[in-house]
Amino acid sequence: MRLLELLHHGQTELELAGVTEYELDARLLLEYCTAKTRAGIFLDGACEVDPAICENYLSLLERRKKREPLAYILGEQEFWSLPFHVTPDVLIPRPETEFLLDRVFALADTENFQKGHILDLCCGSGVIATILAKESGKKIIASDISFKALHMTRKNARRHRLESQVLPVQGHLLAPFSAGATFSLIVANPPYISSFDVRHSLMPEVAGHEPHLALDGGVRGLELIQQIRDALPTVLCPGGQCFIEIGADQGAEIKKFFSEDVVGGRCYQQVEILVDYAGRERVVHVRLGQ
Known about the structure:
19% strand; alpha/beta; 7-stranded mixed β-sheet; Rossmann fold; two-stranded antiparallel ribbon; 2 domains
């Protein structure tokens, strides 16, 4: 089979399987199998494909037809214009999390990058910790309950030569850190999808392949965010900031419970919901009082 014929075959197969971006996915899989660029595929479109390459491509098409995410098939995902390793042990990095980081760099005080420790909470693949380390030059603590996720964090930090700056810690939310810890900046992407939606409303790629541990935020999707809220005053230094990615319909309720009194009499002097470029509530930004 000729190269362009193989590409068109892949596009047709993925379209019939219900894959939304069938043209793009078929081409990226072919680029992966042939080690050719997009331009190379079209320039060499009339060339016959090596049978071994053709067999490999058809095998990967079958995986994508079963709605396995493209990132897991290729083993990596671009984030912040950099490549990151991903496996089914971690969520695939998404544009929403790029917005989270964009707001951190835009709104976090310079002194909060300097005076205390910085934490990537629920680090998953480690993309947040890696970018924070790369952009700030600081050491970043990266915590997650999943040992396999922390393995990916280490692998991605190593890939970008930042292993000495990214320090993995295993544990549930803020439990590994004793009261009085001096974090001046915390960035978190915790599970925030309701248990019902995890079971019934997600796309097949997500529901069938991505780790539910990193998706399921409890009955309303807010349970883990509330646990973070309750523990923050014990580990965040006065004036410290926290940025948390949230669901698009959760802003009002999250702002309400972050605005309530907290344990020990310390309160948040700033609570704001940040709206992404599509107009969706996407991040809660809080600052602890002095």
